[in-house]
Each structure stands twice: as structure tokens, then as C-alpha cells.
Amino acid sequence: MKAYVMDAQGNHSLQERPKPTLIDDSDVIVKIEKTTICGTDLHILRGNVSTFKSDTILGHEGVGVVQECGSRVSKYKPGDRVIISCITSCGSCSMCQKSQFGQCINGGWILGNEIDGCQAEYVRIPYGDNSLFHAPEDIDSESLVFLSDIFPTGYEVGVLDGKLKPADSVAIIGCGPVGLAALMTAKFFSPSKIYAIDNNPHRLDAAKELGATHTINNSENTAVDQVLDITDDVGVDVVIEAIGIPAGWDMSQKLVRPGGNIAVLGVHGKSATINLEDMWKRNFTMTAGLVHTYTTPALIKQIRAGHLHPEKLCTHHFPLSETDKAYDTFINAEKHNALKVMITNS
Fold this sequence. Notes:
Elements: E1 2-6, E2 12-16, E3 28-36, H1 39-45, E4 56-57, E5 62-69, E6 81-84, E7 122-125, H2 128-131, E8 132-134, H3 141-145, H4 150-160, E9 169-173, H5 177-186, E10 193-198, H6 201-209, E11 214-217, H7 223-230, E12 236-241, H8 246-255, E13 256-264, H9 276-279, E14 285-288, H10 296-304, E15 314-319, H11 323-331, H12 333-336, E16 340-344
Parallel strand pairs: 9-10, 9-12, 10-11, 12-13, 13-14, 15-16
Antiparallel strand pairs: 1-2, 1-4, 3-5, 3-7, 3-16, 5-6, 6-8
Organism: Vibrio aquimaris
Keywords: Metal-binding, Oxidoreductase, Zinc
GO molecular function: oxidoreductase activity, acting on the CH-OH group of donors, NAD or NADP as acceptor; zinc ion binding
């Protein structure tokens, strides 16, 4: 089969790989219909993910059709269309028993990281009963692909962990796809103000269209001053950091109001300093971590009700044979006005 692989030297390309087979009796083999590229995949390409195993097929998002099931799989059968969760959950370890599926002792984020992922014709999903969702036939497949990761991540790790409440103000640092997903799900709580911060005018335009009340261009590093000026130097109730670089964390510390919350979505590959000499007295809360995907069923309901439109983030389409081109487009997003790219296995 065709699959997109990164080797030990950091080279990434479409290759011929063996079709996956069942290894454990909880496995499910899925034929990919559609997949996509995540910002986390770019962190892997840049060497910022220490757990990545070289010569692994990339990707952890997708929708497909079940081809084969292990003997212990009871929720799925061949022919079922499924959403692949970016998180693999065994369902029985001490962390899964606490619904901390992202920290599963036997799984977690392993797809396209420690084991072969979804940017291929077929993928093996361990613990299939707990790591897949049935794909509703009344929702377009592109929206469903984005429920694999960015919308549960934006909602759970950003909005819910950030304790956003009705009438709160929220600043979203970084308007890439996951930041925009956080913005779109933040609207469930009717925040009074949504400050969208980015250097990319196209992304800021998208944020405005998707509901931001204020778009702040940080190309001259003035975003903090702009927001503090609007808020009379108080800051905002919730800061969602969605870029994963030290500058994003530094901005978060400066923007959060006393008693407010900082929720870190970004994948940080370098150390960032917590300035406790300034922050200790501000009664702030900081959260960070992996998504657990427990909100996927609720997000499906929000799409069906017309309150959420993930497909609005899809800007480019490619066949699997042009995955190199899809990566070039996603890496050079500003040049191509790209948000999410869709890759179809034809």
C-alpha cells in the first residue's frame, strides 16, 4: 500500500509499505477514506517530538471503513464507517478507568508517533472498541475527519480545561486550525469577547468570520499591549495558547487576568519560563496536556444541531498520491492561505 513515512534522517515521502495485519485480538484494520495533516505532524518533522519512532507512517486523524476485526472486538464489524480517534485507549488501565484516555498506559497518542498512522491506504487501530467512533451517515466526512483530533483538542484542552464560563473574555493565541477549533467551540459558552491573536492576516480574517470579536495582528509584537489597552490593563479571563512556542507562553502570562486561567494547547518542543516572580501573586491556573476525546459524541450532536461547522476549516484537497504537495501547502500555509488540507484515498 501507499503510505507517508518519515525516516531516521528526517526525510519524509510517499512509500510502498506492507498492508497492516491484525496483531492482537483487539485490533481493527481500517481502510482510510480521508485523512489530514496536523500541526503536530509538523512538530515531528522539526524534531520536536521525542517519542516519535523513525520509519513510522505519519498521521493520527481519519475516517474510514472497517476491513477486519480481532476476535475480541464487539462494537464494530467489517463495512462499518468509523472516525479514528487520535488517542488509543485500552479502556482498562488505571488512567482509562479515570477517563484520562490521553494518558492510557497502553496507548495514548501513539498513532503516527510510536506506531504506524493514518496517512496511508490502511491503518491498524489497537483497542478498536475504545479507539474508534461510529461515523454518522448524515454528517459530511470532512467534518468527521476533524473530530479525530483538532475539535476535541480545542474543546477539551482549551475551552473546558480553561474553565470558560458564559460572559467570560477569552484570548486565543495562534489561529491555526486547532486555535480556530477552540474559538468555534468557545462560542458554545457565549463569551463576551473573543480576542484572536496571530501574525497571519488570512487566519485573522478566518477568525473574524468564525466569531472573533477582536482580531489582533501580532506581526510587530504589540498584541499584549493592544489587549491590555482594551481591558484597562486587567487582562482576560481565559487564555488559550495554541502555537507551542515560548513566545506564546510568555504572552499568556502577560494576558491572563488575576484569578484567570491559561490553557495550553500548543505542542512545546522547547523550554519555556514560568515567571513566578511576577505570577505567584496572581492566583492564576495553568493547564496543559493531551486530549482524551471524550467529547466526540457531544461534538457530533453540535454538528447535527447546526451549532458547529468543522468543514469551514478545510481549504485544500489532495489525493493520497499528492501527499508531498499537501505537506508543502500545509507547511507554507501563509503562502497558500491554507488552514486544513484534506487527503483522500482514492
